[in-house]
Amino acid sequence: MSVDPMVYETQFFGFTPQTCMLRIYIAFQDYLFEMMLVVEGVMLKKLDGIPGCKVSPSQIRKCTEKFLVFMKEHFDKLFAKMEEVLLQLVLNIPKNVLLPEDRVQEQYPYSEEEFQALQDELQQLQQQCRAEAATEQALRAELEEQKVVKAELEKILQCFDGLESICREHGAGNFKESFALLTQNSKKLQDVLKDVEEKSKKMKQHDQLM
Amino acid sequence: ADGGGGLALAAAPGRAQVFTTVVDTFLEKLVAAGSYQRFVNCYRCFYKLQPQLTRSIYDQFISQLQASIKEEIQEVKNEGNLEGLFSSLDKIVEEAKDREEPAWRPSGIPEQDIRSTMVPYFLKHCSHLRRVLREKEEENRKVAESVLMGRDRIAELQQLIQARQQAWQ
After folding, report:
1. Which residues numbered 9-68 in A keep a CB inside 8 Å of some CB on B?
2. In this prediction, what percent of chain B has a pLDDT beyond 70?
3. Helix A112-169, helix B110-167: angle, nearest 10
4. Mind telling me which residue stretches traverse the membrane in this protein (chain B) (predicted)?
5. What is the DSSP string of B92-146?
């Protein structure tokens, strides 16, 4: 005959029902024996005070033993019945009953595969989030770079615009054109200079020959 | 089931009530077995000498025994908070009364049983991450637009500068 370990009941009550019954049994039995000893003690004391008493302590002891054997037999029988009822009706959880703390078991009966799939999905989402975070970083870094570059370019543009406004202010006409003309003229001058140099060299040679 | 006629059905006694009744019955029967008659039978020699004292000793024995047993039961009830647990269990059982199939029980394999307890947390986490991901993607889309606009602007500036340079040649 296998003993029901009553695991679910233990989960609920915080103790094993059978252990509880055993504790009660031992306590009750102890009280019974204790009371009997007290009874015996009172009787012995009384007999002590009676001079010439015909009843010996060993006789009283035999009486106690007789009473004890009788009481123990009934005690055990009655306790066994009580234990049976308590274990069946009071300290038990019917088979169709699910404790509230275990509701998730019936709400989410995931198999091993389903559970693994859920974990995989979670992992995938975490990866995607990390990727988006990296993308964000890269984008914001470029935005910062653009800011710097834009500032530089705008400065240069400002310089150019600044020059033009100066020219206009000082009435140098079209400075740009004059500047361009100047560049051209100096080039022409350079050519003329070269021509003159060559001609004078030729003349000197000619003179020497003459 | 509805109580018909004029007879009101008494509610089934709760576990606390059954517990008390069963213990009281035990005591009753024990005391009945250990009757005064039986006591006298065993202690006949003493009874012959001191009949009145025998009665008084017996009465004290019985009352002490009953008191000790009741006290022990009360202690067990207090220590384990049995009254509270009994009434909770009664409620839980009552709520399950329409259910016939056997309920889930621990499998004895903790790794298996813990799966279902973790599922709701994982599900919540997943939906949270999905939301965060959506928001981040949306944000990044906007930032990407700004980046593209920025690139266009820089190209524009570069062209303007080039034009100025050429004008000064």
Report:
1. 11-15, 20, 23-24, 27-28, 31-32, 34-36, 38-39, 42-43, 46-47, 50, 53, 55, 59-60, 63-64, 66-67
2. 93
3. 20
4. none
5. HHHHTTT--SPPP---S-HHHHHHHHHHHHHHHHHHHHHHHHHHHHHHHHHHHHH
Could you say which of B26, B92, B104 has the minimum Cβ distance to residue A105?
Answer: B104
* Total structural domains within chain B: 2
**Which stretches in chain A have pLDDT values below 70?**
1-2, 171-176, 210
Contact A82 B129 (CB under 8 A): no
ipTM over 0.85: no
* Same domain flag for B93 and B123: no
Maximum Cα–Cα distance across chain A: 191
B112 in Cβ contact with A106 (< 8 Å): no
Task: Give the separation between CA A106 and CA A104, rounded to whole angstroms.
Answer: 5
pLDDT at B78 over 90: yes
Mean pLDDT of chain B: 91
Contact A125, B133 (CB under 8 A): yes
Q: Which of A38, A78, A119 sits opposite B30 (nearest CB)?
A: A78
B16: enclosing H helix or E strand: helix B15-33
Cβ pair B22, A82 in contact under 8 A: yes
The answer to whether residues B142 and B81 belong to one domain is: no
Pair (B24, B67) in one structural domain = yes
CB of B18 less than 8 A from some CB of A: yes
pTM beyond 0.80: no
**Could you tell me the pLDDT band of residue B4, with boundaries at 50, 70 and 90?**
very low
Residue A59: exposure state from Cβ atoms within 10 A (0-12, 13-18, ≥19)? middle
Same domain, B88 and B37: yes
